[in-house]
Amino acid sequence: QAQLVESGGGLVQAGGSLRLSCAASGRTRSSYAMGWFRQAPGKEREFVAATSWIGGNLYYADSVKGRFTISRDNAKNTVYLQMNSLKPEDTAVYYCAARMKLGNWYRMNEYDYWGQGTQVTVSS
Asked: What is the pLDDT of residues 75-90, one digit of tens each?
């Protein structure tokens, strides 16, 4: 059974920080890469950041570069998203996703498993 469980969302004021966690279990523990996506109300789900378990390649959306940092703890099978200098436009449901093989880092349909999502709300 493959499972991804996100945590760490919440309400924060603009300029504040949050750290999201995504714990991988079952088949997702042998995934090639992990990514974070987000979906704001009325908008399509979009890529935020991604990393590989081995090698540590890092990829970011332009909108979060310099503010968000993706990291991983292989021993804990957990991926993190540290979000600093948050803006109201970062408000969205954030989803963790696992990709089992090489592919496009930015495309949603390249990811095989998804978490249930965690709400991040940034107030102005």
From this structure: 999 999 999 999 999 9
